[in-house]
Amino acid sequence: AQSVTQLDSQVPVFEEAPVELRCNYSSSVSVYLFWYVQYPNQGLQLLLKYLSGSTLVESINGFEAEFNKSQTSFHLRKPSVHISDTAEYFCAVSYTDKLIFGTGTRLQVFP
Amino acid sequence: GAGVSQTPSNKVTEKGKYVELRCDPISGHTALYWYRQSLGQGPEFLIYFQGTGAADDSGLPNDRFFAVRPEGSVSTLKIQRTERGDSAVYLCASSLRGGLTTGELFFGEGSRLTVL
Prior knowledge:
The structure holds 2 protein chains of 2 kinds.
Chain A: E1 3-5, E2 10-14, E3 19-21, E4 24-26, E5 33-38, E6 45-50, E7 56-58, E8 64-68, E9 73-78, E10 87-95, E11 98-101, E12 105-110
Parallel strand pairs in A: 2-12
Antiparallel strand pairs in A: 1-4, 3-9, 5-6, 5-10, 7-8, 8-9, 10-11, 10-12
Chain B: E1 5-7, E2 10-13, E3 19-24, E4 31-37, E5 44-50, E6 53-56, E7 65-68, E8 75-79, E9 88-95, E10 106-107, E11 111-115
């Protein structure tokens, strides 16, 4: 069965600094990988996804993630964060038509 | 509305009571999912509907939990004899066709259940 590990429960960072949120997964089969974001008092929203093709995927707001099959990782990165990026970020892996989520990483951006 | 709607947004009940949580998916979405999110945890899969039928109910924790989707649109999650451990945010999501080749589930804002 698939599982997802997000080692960092909280990541504090100053505005305009780079950030990396780590995600590792376990799977014996090909997978689809996702990052969802939950802003305060809002529902989960898809940030980006890897289904096939290029291993580097990007979001519209400057985040990117790279699928690394050999390391079973899908880390999320942004070169320069904004205050508005403060949110909870969840990595997820597909498994038989459902998503399995990690425990989440709270990104706190300080001015 | 345009998004997934869940009611009630908050529900406080006493141990042993019966609770119903409702989800109204995006119009035209055939797939509907229920997840549960406890404090400090990620969403935990409960059940997945494709149309009116439950395609996968492997995440329901026990027989106190039941969900229906009689007309292939609105779904109700039913919890009997609630326990304090059932306290969580219950999330509903829908997608256009089900399966994850398109990769996107649209989530509602959740129903926060507190069992006293």
